[in-house]
Amino acid sequence: MKVDFAKLDRAFNPRTVAVVGDSKRSGFQWLGTYSSFQGKLYSVQVNVESIEGIKERGVPNYLSLLDIPDSIDLAVVSVPRSAALKILDDCIQKDVGAGFFFTAGFAETGTEEGIKLEQALKEKAEAANFHLIGPNCMGLFNPKVGIRQIAFQYVGRSGPLGLISQSGTHALEFSLVAHLQGLDINKSVSFGNGTVLDSPDYLEYFAQDPEIRVIGMYLEGVKDGQRFMKVLKEVSAKKPVAIWKGGRTGEGGRAIASHTGSLAVPWTIWNSAVRQCGAVNVASMEELADTLKALFYLPPVRGGRVAITGGSGGQSVAIADVFAEAGLEVPRLSKASCDELSTFYSLIGGGYPNPIDVGNQNAAEMKRILEIMERDTNTDNIILLGTTRFGTPEQMQIQVDLMAEIKKRSAKAVVAIVSYSTPDEMRQARDLTRRFQEKEIPCFPSIERGACALKNTLDYYLFKSSDGK
Prior knowledge:
17 helices, single chain, elongated, alpha/beta
């Protein structure tokens, strides 16, 4: 079935939504989740007890999807699996833009009945060119128009991220993890079993969406490996794509079968194929969020040599180890840089081979230190270890402004790391992170996460360079 982007546009940016089968027993899960929707919301329910609760919510209810007077852009289907085919018939007859089927109990059960029912859904939808999302999924998230996957997701703001996830739990959790790190979702889809529309379809759709700048994926398997890799290579040449693959171990692979019914792919084969397509492999939700943040904010990263400042004492040793172990270099600064530093730098409580150990004596010279790092010929990237522990808000803002000035005029990648140890420091660190990222400087909560994200970004741009892109 050929994907119709116009139909997906209707689904991701709906003006009308119909929730089919939401009930009192489920606590009106989907009507509650879609209470933030900015367009017209309708319900389809025949149970008398549930209808009363729907009326109390002020949502118009109809006994059939076909009775709704408006055209419907998106149907949210939450009916028992025995009713799924009937509702699909109604969606097709009503010419609904697309429907996501929260309904589960299909091929992922491994039962003959579930497998046959999913095949029947597939055949019916494809014959009518109906864009069925799922089944066994949490559907769509577009905070700008107020459609959500769960009621505690944010609305009223939008970011540059597109997320494609087989797991509903990972989709909604990732939206919150990225949000806390200062980067928001533009559009997200949880597609579950991917019976009709599969990951390459959403990847193609996100590739042509100008509002989506970077794409993240959580995948457990692919149905058509050849097509997936072809699309991934095409999209990665246009926009950065980072993929978190579930089932990298034998144990994880066995769990996949009962989750979405996908076939696991051996990790070594997957890792090699994805890298050859120009995408980035990551191993966790945090690494996915961090990598997408770096890919969005940083200019093309051309080298792995880093100049680091802001730490002190033993911290500098640990920092050098972390960056080196991530596959980056922490070289000595050039002779010219060291000579210039020697004219003013206090070695009491500090040092400057790289990392530049600021200590208490040299903090007031941060502007000169950063400018020397900017000019240094032995390094490609500048890392600042920001702090909330010893500085006032005004002093913290100075750090932000200095780094922003360098970013404007330098081709070097500029990265901030602001760690914390107490709840109060955490609140201040989040505020400082926001300030850095308002200046388009990615900020990370630990040196390990910052180093990993920078290395992943370097790998992405090295591949693009070697591939002639």
